[in-house]
Design brief:
Strand content: 5-15%
Distance between the termini: 82 Å
Largest sheet: 6 strands, mixed
Shape: globular
Number of helices: 16
Oligomer: single chain
Radius of gyration: 35 Å
Helix content: 25-40%
């Protein structure tokens, strides 16, 4: 075996000793300023090395057989030392200066809540009436009413649409059927989140005030289509309404409730709100747990795991006359469907009869809807089954834990959740601009940091000559009414 000795060659003149030009071999101890090799001479009396110097030291390899050969080898001890030092500094830096987590989506509300002027024992109450996503927007508007007035919110009652006449919107009919907020939405989660992030905006059930001497003041009527308020102005409107009614100030034993008229969903200009929490109230409103559970199982179905296009055909029996028909919608969507790599389409439509003619237009794609996927899901959990029994509107009796059977017990608007939730995860959503269902998908799917979805509706981002507008996640078929979406959601 060859005996190998690693030594370094250092020119003494490089370290300030100009009296000697001799090289010397140093061992590990000579790097500290002295030499252990008496045969060498010319070493400086004081040797101070810098990190930069260590990296520049040429190393040579000696052996007894070949004493004079020079070979460059990596300075492994030095590199190991540098690596160890770097890792130690990095760990210390992370320990004492940890990276800040991103702010919570509701943090902006908390900041504004702390600066808002609040009036304890004053509440706003609304009555909601329309379709599924309009209801969500109306509830968001009610929360804005309460925040702007510095008041709490009484969870509103919702008029249940007539399943045989969905377009017969209520105007306060005496035979209206009402359901609690929790029928469609997660009222417990809303109360919990508001208590955590803006506790001054108290969210209560109407029954919580029955033992008190409540003074109710009716506001309105007003045109539900007209933008009436910008941020900061509703407070003064409430002052005028209270002054006109001569009810005085609210007290703990005698709170005041401002009752808003039906359909308050389009009276606030959302652009007037601080952009950091424009959508906060909307984002706080979740679907009811039983609907999220079944809708989530549909969205997680194995047939959708490889990516899919979500198509909304707005052709249900409550569609407004004059809106785009089947041919107009499918022709507009075809370009995007055929140019995408996804081979699966999730079809969202409240009328299942349109699935077959739609599938005939796209023979190279697999077309599935909620009914296809519900039929192959495992039985629902006992808690979900119980929740369906407690909230059934009597459309169909719930007799089994089969998700398909449970879905058949739902109202038209509840079934919309089972379409909406899977559409959230689609690679691309295609819909029409006049539909609140498709528009709110665009709103919810767009990252908040990228700004308002409505601002994308005037830009054509895809194939030249296309009439579809939106962003790379959601495309809508015009007409779009900008004045409509200035107040939505």
């Amino acid at each position: 075996m060859r005996e190998v000795e690693l030594t370094s060659v250092i020119n003494a003149s490089d370290y300030g000793d100009t009296d000697s030009e001799a090289d010397f071999e140093s061992t590990g101890s000579s790097l500290l300023g002295h030499t252990s090799n008496p045969r060498r001479h010319g070493a400086p009396k004081s040797l101070r090395l810098r990190w930069n110097d260590l990296l520049q030291i040429p190393w040579r390899r000696h052996s007894k057989a070949d004493r004079g050969a020079l070979r460059t080898v990596p300075p492994l001890p030095v590199l190991a030392c540098l690596l160890f030092t770097f890792l130690a500094l990095f760990i210390l830096a992370r320990a004492f200066y940890p990276s800040s987590p991103p702010p919570h989506p509701f943090q902006a509300l908390s900041n504004h809540c702390a600066k808002n002027a609040w009036r304890p024992n004053l509440y706003v109450n609304c009555t909601l009436s329309m379709g599924l996503n309009n209801l969500r927007s109306e509830l968001s508007q009610c929360l804005k009413f309460a925040f702007d007035a510095g008041a709490g919110l009484v969870l509103p009652l919702i008029v249940l649409r007539n399943q045989e006449s969905l377009n017969a919107w209520s105007n306060g009919n005496p035979d209206d059927t009402f359901v609690e907020t929790g029928f469609y939405f997660d009222a417990d989660a809303l109360r919990r989140d508001m208590s955590a992030w803006c506790p001054a905006l108290k969210v209560v059930e109407s029954g919580e005030l029955t033992s008190l001497d409540v003074r109710e003041v009716l506001d309105g009527p007003r045109d539900w289509w007209e933008i009436t308020f910008a941020a900061g102005t509703y407070r003064y409107h409430v002052d005028e309404v209270m002054q006109k009614a001569a009810v005085g100030e609210p007290t703990p034993k005698s709170p005041i409730v401002i009752r808003e008229p039906l359909r308050p969903y389009s009276v606030f200009d959302y652009r007037s709100w601080d952009s950091s929490f424009t959508y906060t109230f909307f984002d706080m409103i979740q679907w009811a747990p039983r609907l999220r559970e079944i809708g989530g199982e549909v969205a997680a179905h194995e047939k959708l795991k490889e990516g899919y296009i979500g198509v909304h055909l707005r052709l249900e029996k409550d569609v407004i006359p004059g809106w785009a028909g089947f041919d107009t919608q499918t022709q507009a969507y075809a370009t995007y469907i055929n140019n995408r790599p996804e081979r699966v389409i999730f079809l969202a439509c409240g009328d299942a009869s349109y699935k077959s003619p739609f599938a005939a237009l796209f023979p190279h794609h697999t077309i599935v809807d909620k009914w296809d996927l519900l039929a192959t899901l495992p039985p629902a959990s006992p808690s979900v089954y119980s929740a369906f029994l407690n909230h059934s509107a009597g459309v169909s009796s719930v007799v089994t834990t089969s998700p398909l059977s449970l879905a058949k017990s739902l109202t038209f608007d509840e079934l919309g959740c089972l379409d909406y939730i899977p559409m959230l995860n689609a690679s691309l959503v295609l819909g029409i601009g006049l539909s609140s269902f498709a528009y709110l998908l665009g709103v919810e799917r767009r990252p908040r940091a990228e700004g308002h979805f409505a601002d994308t509706l005037h830009m054509e981002l895809f194939p030249e000559g296309s009439s579809m507008v939106g962003d790379e996640r959601t495309l809508l078929l015009p007409p779009i009414l900008p004045e409509y979406y200035d107040r939505f959601p």
